[in-house]
Amino acid sequence: MDKTLIIFKPDCIKKQLLGTVLSRFEAAGFSVAGCKMMQLESELLRKHYSHIADQPFFPQIESFMASEPVVVMILEGKGVIEKVRLLLGPTDSTKAPAGTIRGDYGETVMINVVHASDSLESAEAEIKRFFCESDFIK
Ligand code: ADP
Predict the structure, then answer these.
(1) Exposed/middle/buried for 56, CB within 10 Å: 0-12, 13-18, 19+?
(2) 18 close to 71: Cβ distance less than 8 angstroms
């Protein structure tokens, strides 16, 4: 079964939108295959965001992502990687259409509710990065 890595970002947790957002994923037919709460640290964030770690705005992302514990989750289902990205909408919440998760609940390009893997390769790498042998995973 296809799997993807989801992070419910600090803004999502702060606004108590976890259930609302998860219900959209479940309504689309996807199920939870792993879940835990984490305080993200600099080293993990630098790995996770290595593709943008040299950008001038990276320190802001780092402090935003570490501002509050997040919920990390593995979602599974047929076509979950592509479908979840469609449910999220584009990165920039101000450009995301109404009806998408970022369009409905996001604030800015940075404060955008949820991370989701963007390809099979990233999903596999990210699941390994955020979950370990001792975590319960379906
Ligand atoms: P996505 O999360 O949609 O895959 P990226 O991988 O490009 O997008 O960026 C990772 C995260 O970094 C975004 O979700 C967002 O929180 C933040 N980000 C991206 N671009 C910017 C930017 N120009 N300014 C501030 N934050 C940004």
Answers:
(1) exposed
(2) yes
Instruction: Write down the pLDDT at residue 136.
Output: 85
Best probe residue, ligand 1, of 91, 95, 102, 108 (max atoms within 8 Å of C-beta) = 91
Q: Is the CB of 112 under 6 A from ligand 1?
A: yes
Residue nearest to atom 3 of ligand 1 (CA): 91
Whether 86 lines ligand 1, by a CB cut-off of 6 Å, is: no
C-alpha 74/C-alpha 64 separation (Å) is: 22
The H or E element containing residue 13 is helix 10-14
- What is the per-residue pLDDT across 68-83, written as a single tens digit (0 to 9) for each? 999 999 999 999 999 9
The model's pTM: 0.98
What sign has the CA pseudo-torsion 128, 133, 136, 137? positive
CA–CA gap between residue 52 and residue 57 (Å, rounded): 9
pLDDT in tens, 99-125: 999 999 999 999 999 999 999 999 999
The residues carrying an active-site annotation are 115
